[in-house]
Amino acid sequence: SQQGEEDPQALSIQEGENATMNCSYKTSINNLQWYRQNSGRGLVHLILIRSNEREKHSGRLRVTLDTSKKSSSLLITASRAADTASYFCAMRSNDYKLSFGAGTTVTVRA
Amino acid sequence: GAVVSQHPSRVICKSGTSVKIECRSLDFQATTMFWYRQFPKQSLMLMATSNEGSKATYEQGVEKDKFLINHASLTLSTLTVTSAHPEDSSFYICSADAGTGDYGYTFGSGTRLTVV
């Protein structure tokens, strides 16, 4: 299964600022999902965007998908200290498997 | 919402022993569950797909005799790390598709395995 690439690897921002992270993948997908992981914990699903969608919003989250470039971005607006975590994109292929990106570690400074 | 319960959360075992990790879907039936392994500060690597009532399918490079998967019911999948060695120390996470449309997959809270 493919693995995605994410950038940046790490991001440090001030509370209230926006955080943007990008994900690229190699093969066709059914949908792309973003997850958050706090240190040493399981993953929490944030948002899912289908292959025929280009943009989606959920609260302070905005995700885009460009299937022609095989890339996606996640924007977190007005960040909070509680947003400090690792963020992973995950590509779902037609065989229902999820393949994860390398992850972006976000630190929000108070 | 859908919940996947994973136990134990932490386990320390001696080299050569076997360890069983359980993954339960609490409020939905899961015909398929997935097992991942995660090394520190790295991404999740899919190890195998657990199928209720049939054999698991393993990803390339994953030893099926080392990582035994049993999915005996629609709510329980187990991963047994057999004859564990220090290099098997890792964070293991299971997930399942609750079929909730746009809500992605539901993950367990993970198991930190340390082999000494």
Please provide a brief summary of the model.
The complex is a heterodimer of chains A (110) and B (116). Chain A is mostly beta strands and 110 residues long. Chain A has no helices and eleven strands.
Layout of SSEs?
The complex is a heterodimer of chains A (110) and B (116).
Chain A: E1 5-7, E2 10-14, E3 19-24, E4 31-37, E5 43-50, E6 55-58, E7 61-66, E8 71-76, E9 85-92, E10 98-100, E11 104-109
Parallel strand pairs in A: 2-11
Antiparallel strand pairs in A: 1-3, 3-8, 4-5, 4-9, 6-7, 7-8, 9-10, 9-11
Chain B: E1 4-7, E2 10-13, E3 19-25, E4 32-38, E5 44-51, E6 57-58, E7 67-73, E8 76-81, E9 90-96, E10 106-107, E11 111-115
Parallel strand pairs in B: 2-11
Antiparallel strand pairs in B: 1-3, 3-8, 4-5, 4-9, 5-6, 7-8, 9-10, 9-11
Which keywords apply here?
heterodimer; A: 110 residues; mainly beta; 6-stranded mixed β-sheet; 5-stranded antiparallel β-sheet; 56% strand; globular; B: 116 residues; 7-stranded mixed β-sheet; 4-stranded antiparallel β-sheet
